[in-house]
Amino acid sequence: MHAGFPCFTQDIQKVLQLGANSDETPKLLESAGGTVVAGGIAVLLKLGFGFIMRNSLVDAEQAKKAKAFFNDNFVITDPNAPNGRRYYQGKFLIRTQKPGDDMNVWLRFCNKPDELFVKTPFGDALNPLAVVDSKVLKEEKANHIASDPNKVDLVIAFRDLNAMLGLVGRADVDIVGLLLENVVLLKGNVGHLFKLGAIAKDIELSLENSGGLVH
C-alpha cells in the first residue's frame, strides 16, 4: 500500500504550486497564523485541482479539453446510478493535530452535482468552480466533521503548522517518511488518498503534454 504514497506528496505539491504560482507563497504562509494558513491552503487546493479545467467556459475547444479531463478523473460508470454514471465525490479534512493551530480545510469534489454543467453559446460546458470546493473550518466544526463518515472520507492530520507547510515548501516531502516519523496521521478510507494523488498526477501529465509543466 505504501508504494503509492511517495508520488502522492510530490504530485499534490505540484498542484499546490499551480495554485500559488509563486515561489514566495510558502514564505508568506510561514509567517501567518493557523486560520490564515488554512485560507491560503484552501485557495491553493481549489485553484490547483481546477487548473486544467479553468478555461472550460472560454470556447468550444477549451470546453472539450476540460470535459475530457473531468470525465477521466471524476466520472464513474455505475449501472445503479441515474444515466449509468455518477461523480467522484471524495471528501477530505486537512488539518493539524495541535488544537491551538486552528488549521482546518475541508476539501470536497463534485459536492453539488447539479451545478457541474452550465449552458453556453457552444453547448453545455463544465463549470470549473463547481468541481472543487474548499472551505476553512473553525476547530469545533472540524472536530464534528472529523467524526462523521457522511461528511468526510479521509482525515489528513499533520502534527502542527510547520509540518503542514512542509508539504508546500519542501521538494523532498515523502508521506511514507511523514507517517513513520508521526508527522502525519490518516483516519478513514485510505483509498481516497490514492485517488487524490491520481488526480494530481493527471494534472501533471496534462501539463507535460501541453508543454506547460510547472517545475
Please, what is the average pLDDT?
81
Shape: globular
Total strands: the figure is 9
- The residue fraction in helices comes out at 40-55%
User: Helix count, per DSSP?
Assistant: 9
Account of the 3D structure:
The chain has 215 residues and is of the alpha+beta class. It has one domain. Helices cover 47% and strands 19% of the residues. It has helices spanning 5-20, 25-30, 34-49, 60-74, 128-131, 139-146, 161-169, 175-180, 191-210; strands spanning 75-77, 85-87, 91-96, 104-109, 117-120, 123-126, 132-136, 154-158, 184-188. The strands form 3 sheets. The protein has a 5-stranded mixed sheet, sandwiched between helices. Helix 1 crosses helix 3 and helix 1 (5-20) crosses helix 9. It is globular. 37% of the residues are buried. Mean pLDDT is 81; it is low at 1-8.
Which characteristics define this entry?
single chain; 215 residues; alpha+beta; two-stranded antiparallel sheet; 9 helices; 47% helix
Write the layout of secondary structure elements.
Elements: H1 5-20, H2 25-30, H3 34-49, H4 60-74, E1 75-77, E2 85-87, E3 91-96, E4 104-109, E5 117-120, E6 123-126, H5 128-131, E7 132-136, H6 139-146, E8 154-158, H7 161-169, H8 175-180, E9 184-188, H9 191-210
Parallel strand pairs: 3-8
Antiparallel strand pairs: 1-2, 3-4, 4-7, 5-6, 8-9
Helix pairs in contact: 1-3, 1-9
Task: Give a short overview.
This protein has nine helices and nine strands. The protein has helices at 5-20, 25-30, 34-49, 60-74, 128-131, 139-146, 161-169, 175-180, 191-210; strands at 75-77, 85-87, 91-96, 104-109, 117-120, 123-126, 132-136, 154-158, 184-188.
